[in-house]
């Protein structure tokens, strides 16, 4: 079982009336999975789309719907709930509720606690495209942004009414990532980070190639974590099936040579370089432009070494802070430390391939001049956040 090692944050999840309310159930589940404590508050309209019983069952907490709830001893639920929260998230936020927020109305429990809050407010708009584009809604959104309300989305796509356009609420998984990111300290604000991720593909002929089992998940998680900590991120990725984190500058490559060229073009502008990619050590000397036809005899391929990208970056005259990765099948401590010293790296991250490749969680060992430190097994995004926090401390001399 994955060990949870992230701090507990507390939010009020406000649900307003709209068909996107069904997504709130999945959002609640994902937030709890991220170790965020959630208290649900629903408007009367929201209860027509999803029941308080559903949200109570998922949150294991009573759901509040009424400003005049007799079960609240001091009849001040709007004060009590907001004071206990690190943030309030409204998802979905209907056009009507956005108008209330922009104009300071407080005619029900959820709008009252938003007005009475002393914590940040995040909203995820959800409405028909014409409602979203209406000048009144756009004025209200502009006002909320000026009031330092964080607006998450909306997205474009097919809507419940059958029309297509802007106004869909972000999917629950994206909202959960955005909310988790909100709580991360911006320790890398102003820093630029260049990350390589995924495998490389070395062509044999027009249809065949040499590659490896790297999924790219760790590199993509590090890119996401770096964004959360406030960095500007460029992600150079080999071929993967993963979706790029929203906000990165991405460069797609196939071969190790292409990755090396992409790194050379960009490394001069970065403060931190993190080489997570599983770069092929060798490539075919003379790949065939056409498919090699099968025969009864043996096929001999000449392999030549690829450029060591990490060593190249680490040995630049004025290198960025370099972090390497070592995936080993045995003798991790010995081989990882040898690699770190040979390439003159301030920090190297090691793991065993049998525990990491393709999985959603991992255990990492950090190697530097002071020795080694283990980051206990956790999901890869949690590990990425912990790793980036340690990198931020290192570059600040803490």
Report on the architecture of this protein.
The chain starts with 8 loop residues before the first strand and ends with a helix. It has 14 helices and 19 strands. It has helices at residues 21-33, 52-59, 77-83, 95-103, 109-115, 129-133, 135-146, 172-182, 217-228, 256-266, 309-314, 332-343, 353-356, 380-395; strands at residues 9-15, 36-42, 87-93, 121-125, 150-151, 155-158, 164-168, 192-197, 202-203, 209-210, 232-237, 249-252, 272-275, 282-284, 303-305, 321-328, 347-352, 361-368, 371-379. It is α/β, with parallel strands linked by helices and 398 residues long. Helix 1 crosses helix 8 and helix 9 packs across helix 14 (380-395). The relative contact order is 0.10. A hairpin with a 5-residue loop joins strand 6 (155-158) and strand 7. The protein is elongated, with a radius of gyration of 25 Å.
Helix percent band: 25-40%
Number of strands: 19
- Helix/strand structural class: alpha/beta
| C-alpha geometry | elongated
Strand content: 15-25%
Give the end-to-end Cα distance, rounded to a whole number of Å. Answer: 32 Å
Keywords:
14 helices; alpha/beta; 8-stranded mixed β-sheet; disordered N terminus; 398 residues
Short description:
This protein is of the alpha/beta class and 398 residues long. Helices cover 33% and strands 25% of the residues.
Question: What is the fold's blueprint, element by element?
Answer:
Blueprint: E1 9-15, H1 21-33, E2 36-42, H2 52-59, H3 77-83, E3 87-93, H4 95-103, H5 109-115, E4 121-125, H6 129-133, H7 135-146, E5 150-151, E6 155-158, E7 164-168, H8 172-182, E8 192-197, E9 202-203, E10 209-210, H9 217-228, E11 232-237, E12 249-252, H10 256-266, E13 272-275, E14 282-284, E15 303-305, H11 309-314, E16 321-328, H12 332-343, E17 347-352, H13 353-356, E18 361-368, E19 371-379, H14 380-395
Parallel strand pairs: 1-2, 1-3, 3-4, 4-5, 8-11, 8-13, 11-12, 13-16, 16-17
Antiparallel strand pairs: 6-7, 9-10, 14-15, 17-18, 18-19
């Amino acid at each position: 079982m994955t060990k949870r090692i992230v701090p507990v944050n507390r939010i009020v999840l406000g649900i307003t009336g709209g068909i996107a309310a069904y997504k709130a159930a999945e959002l609640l589940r994902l937030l709890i999975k991220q170790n965020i404590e959630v208290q649900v508050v629903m408007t009367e309209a929201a209860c027509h789309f999803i029941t308080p019983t559903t949200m109570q069952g998922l949150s294991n907490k009573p759901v509040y719907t009424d400003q005049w709830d007799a079960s609240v001893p001091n009849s001040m639920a709007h004060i009590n709930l907001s004071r206990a929260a690190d943030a309030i998230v409204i998802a979905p936020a209907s056009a009507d509720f956005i108008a209330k927020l922009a104009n300071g109305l407080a005619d029900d429990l959820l709008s009252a606690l938003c007005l009475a809050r002393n914590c940040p407010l995040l909203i995820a708009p959800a409405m028909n495209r014409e409602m979203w584009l209406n000048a009144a809604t756009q004025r209200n959104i502009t006002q909320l942004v000026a009031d330092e309300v964080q607006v998450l989305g909306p997205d474009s796509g097919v809507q419940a009414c059958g029309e297509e356009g802007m106004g869909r609420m972000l999917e629950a998984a994206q909202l959960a990532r955005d909310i988790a990111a909100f709580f991360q300290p911006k320790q890398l604000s102003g820093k630029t980070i260049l990350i390589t991720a995924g495998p490389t593909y070395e062509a044999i002929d027009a249809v065949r190639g040499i590659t490896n089992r790297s999924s790219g998940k760790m590199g993509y998680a590090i890119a996401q974590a770096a964004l959360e900590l406030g960095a500007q991120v460029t992600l150079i990725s080999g071929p993967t099936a993963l979706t790029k984190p929203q906000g990165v500058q991405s460069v797609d490559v196939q071969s190790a040579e292409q990755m090396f060229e992409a790194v050379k073009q960009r490394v001069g502008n970065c403060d931190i370089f993190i080489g997570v990619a599983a770069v092929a050590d060798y490539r075919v000397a003379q790949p065939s432009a056409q498919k090699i036809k099968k025969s009864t005899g043996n096929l001999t391929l000449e392999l030549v070494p690829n450029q060591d990208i990490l060593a190249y970056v680490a040995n630049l005259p004025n290198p960025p802070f370099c972090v390497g990765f070592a995936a080993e099948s045995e003798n991790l401590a010995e081989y990882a430390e040898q690699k770190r010293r040979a390439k003159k790296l301030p920090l190297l991250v090691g793991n065993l391939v049998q525990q990491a490749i393709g999985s959603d969680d991992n255990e990492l060992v950090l190697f530097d001049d002071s020795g080694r430190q283990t980051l206990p097994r956790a999901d890869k995004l949690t590990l990425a956040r912990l790793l980036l926090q340690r990198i931020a401390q290192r570059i600040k001399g803490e």
